[in-house]
Amino acid sequence: MNPPPRAPGSYTLLLRLDAPAQINVGRLGVVKFPAGWYVYCGSAFGAGGLAARLGRHAAGSGALHWHIGHLRRVAHLVDWRWAEGQQVECAWAQALARQGGVIIAPGFGSSDCRESCGSHLLYFRQQIFDTDFIDEKA
Predict the structure, then answer these.
(1) Which of 27, 64, 66, 118 gets the highest tally of CB atoms within 10 A of its CB?
(2) What tens digit of pLDDT does each residue of 16-60 get?
């Protein structure tokens, strides 16, 4: 995986869950995650930008500030992508849904979403990480 810049921007995480898991995801409650592939869409506009946020996700430990932290404790981080200076995680989540992504946990990562996304976490039975969705505009 390429090291991310300190610039602000949006990112995606490609995660693999080897076995089904039931996880308490904070206010979302207990969620049943099937084994498979997940793409999470997020943004990093705080201090340290993409480097700080993706570094935290790569570690998979620390305080659980976001929904993804709960899943990250059991799922393997396989890859990531980002776009500097752009807030496009909603467009990406919507594009992934159009590509067959399934919402397992409604509201996951999208509690502050302004575009009424069903979730910023999409499930795929088989591996996906076609970067075409990054360039697609919703």
Answers:
(1) 66
(2) 999 999 999 988 999 999 999 999 999 999 999 999 999 989 987
